[in-house]
Amino acid sequence: MSADRSQPQRYDVAIVGAGPTGLFAVFELGLLGLNAVLIDTLDKPGGQCSELYPEKPIYDIPSWPVITGQGLTDKLLEQIAPFKADFLLGRRVNGMTRQEDGRFLIGTDAGDTVDAGAIFIAAGAGCFTPRRPKLEGLEAFENRSVFYAVRSRAAFAGRDLVIAGGGDSALDWTLDLVSTARSVTLVHRSDRFRAAPASVSAMRALEAEGRVRFVEGDLAALHGAAGDLSRIDIRTKGGTVELPADRLLAFYGLNIELGPIAEWGLDLADGKLVRVDTEKFQTSTPGIFAIGDINHYPGKLKLILSGFHEAALASHAAFKVVRPNEKLRFQYTTSSSELQQRLNVAPIAEAAE
Amino acid sequence: MSETGAKIVVIDRAGERHVLETVEGWRVMEILRDQNTGIEGICGGSCDCATCHVIVDPAWADRLPAPRDEELDKLDELPLIEKTSRLSCQIIWSDALDGLTVTIPEAA
User: Fold this and answer.
1) Are residues A259 and A124 in the same domain?
2) Which site among A40, A234, A329, A349 is 20 to 30 Å from A56 CA-CA?
């Protein structure tokens, strides 16, 4: 589903954020004959619904007396399937520029460039980013000796690796990298882990064999030069433990922040919400719309159903931006053969009115 | 807000002390969010995001209902916590907590 990255892919609308509001915007745009690409920092669609509370029941989605976060995501994906949107997942948008013809170019941290006639910011509470430990001089080590995800096992081959955290990521990578790294030390503040019990048992077995060291404590300081880590100090109940180490993998869950959109020159509320009007849900920059939890207007309610409503109105407004010379025909899915064809629910032969 | 006048004491990220109104039955996260203390509560109180992390004054820690496993697990994700760290969405305000003092730590 992902696009060729060598040159800008053209879309009617680029949607930043693949949570429920962004997904439903694909549907509303699709009914109007507009195509879309969804860009999200997470590696799966669904946003908070899939990342934070996939199993939690939601009770205030119209016509669903109860549905889980993941259930809602799955149903939305099913509903928008006819429109074949492209997904750029695991990528964070960064730059946005306006071209001479009024269209936008959006870049991502993975090097994609998207060319879009309009932009929908449907970024929820912002983008998920790894929580970073508060350690002096951390920045110099990041992406060189300190990582928050494993992109390539080769980066840890033959290294003295410290893994910090007590959840599934920390335990899974401890088990995975034990045969790749020269040494693996797991650091967690207590011997109470929240990872799958089987992973904890496997780690304990490796510890008993002397292949993994477990240190109960918190990261206290990083030492090294020019971004190359040489030692990590761990604060433990028994005092500071000095670990020789040249790689650190820290798994402290995810934080949410507005991210690079804050630099797009849009009018913001409280520095973290994007101001819009309530006719088009357009931002202070014409052609850029904001829908769902990320926007702010008088009377705003942060509800998924508000995002759906906003997606519909923004889509109609975007049509006029993307197709300035065409007339928007307002139609219902119950009666329009054109919409039914777009939805792939009516064979063309039977669709004649 | 509270008819009984019970108050919560909050030390914000700038180190400033505020004595705030409360509402019986509200989550402490909601009381803090409603009065713009810098607490976000992104997940809305479902114990999923840890953006409502507070440090309870040690004198009060034992007077609160103990955290459930779900809360301990979420707290455990944070890079830095204190012995009396709590997620304020998991503390329901009652006027018996009049004078409860919490510090909002720097965001993780």
Assistant:
1) yes
2) A40
* CA-based nearest residue in chain B for residue A56: B46
Structural domain boundaries, residue A278: 9-128+255-322
Whether A79 and A101 share a structural domain: yes
Which are the contacts of A194, defined by CB distance < 8 A and separation ≥ 6? A166, A167, A168, B73, B76, B77
The answer to whether the Cβ–Cβ distance between A131 and B51 falls below 8 Å is no
Structural domains counted in chain A: 2
Nearest chain B residue to A126 by CA distance is: B42
Asked casually if ipTM beats, i.e. exceeds, 0.85, the reply is: no
* Best residue of B47, B77, B81 to probe chain A, by most A CBs closer than 10 Å: B77
Domains and CATH numbers, chain B: 7-103 (3.10.20.30)
Q: What is the pLDDT of residues A258-314, one digit of tens each?
A: 889 999 999 999 888 999 999 999 999 999 999 999 999 999 999 999 999 999 999
A190 and A248 housed in the same domain? yes
Q: Is the same domain home to A227 and A260?
A: no
Question: Could you give the C-alpha distances from B69 to A12, A54, A69, A169, B75, in angstroms and in order?
Answer: 47, 18, 21, 19, 10
CA–CA separation, A94 vs A263, rounded Å? 9
Q: Which of A230, A252, A274 is the last residue of a domain?
A: A252
For residue A2, being part of any structural domain is answered with no
Interface contact B78-A252, CB threshold 8 A: yes
Looking at the partner chain, which of A132, A133, A166 has a beta carbon nearest the beta carbon of B76?
Answer: A166
Residues A19, A118 share a domain:
yes
The predicted structure's pLDDT at residue A225: 94
Q: CA angle, A40 as apex, A261 and A99 as ends, to 5°?
A: 50
In this prediction, residues A145-173 reach a mean pLDDT of: 95
User: Is the pLDDT at B94 greater than 60, yes or no?
Assistant: yes
pLDDT over 50 at A3, yes or no: no
Q: Is residue A327 part of a domain?
A: no
Contact between B79 and A134 using a beta-carbon 8 Å cutoff: yes
CA–CA dist A187, A213 (Å, integer): 9
Question: What are A191-241's pLDDT values in tens digits?
Answer: 889 899 999 999 999 999 999 999 999 999 999 999 999 999 999 999 999
How much is the pLDDT for B108?
64
Single residue among A236, A252, A268 that ends a domain in this structure: A252
Q: Centre a 10 Å sphere on the Cβ of residue A62 and count the other Cβ atoms it contains.
A: 7
Together in a domain, A243 and A108: no
Nearest to B79 among A190, A252, A256 (CB): A252
**Does B43 reach chain A within 8 Å, measured CB to CB?**
yes
- Determine, for residues B76 and A134 on separate chains, whether the beta-carbon distance falls below 8 Å: no
Contacts of B108 in chain A (CB under 8 A): 131-132, 134, 252, 255
* A4: CB partners within 8 A, 6+ apart: none
Query: pLDDT of A131-146, one tens digit each?
Result: 999 999 999 999 999 9
Nearest residue of B to residue A235, measured between CA atoms: B80
Which domain CATH number covers A220?
3.50.50.60
**Chain centre to alpha carbon of residue A275:** 21
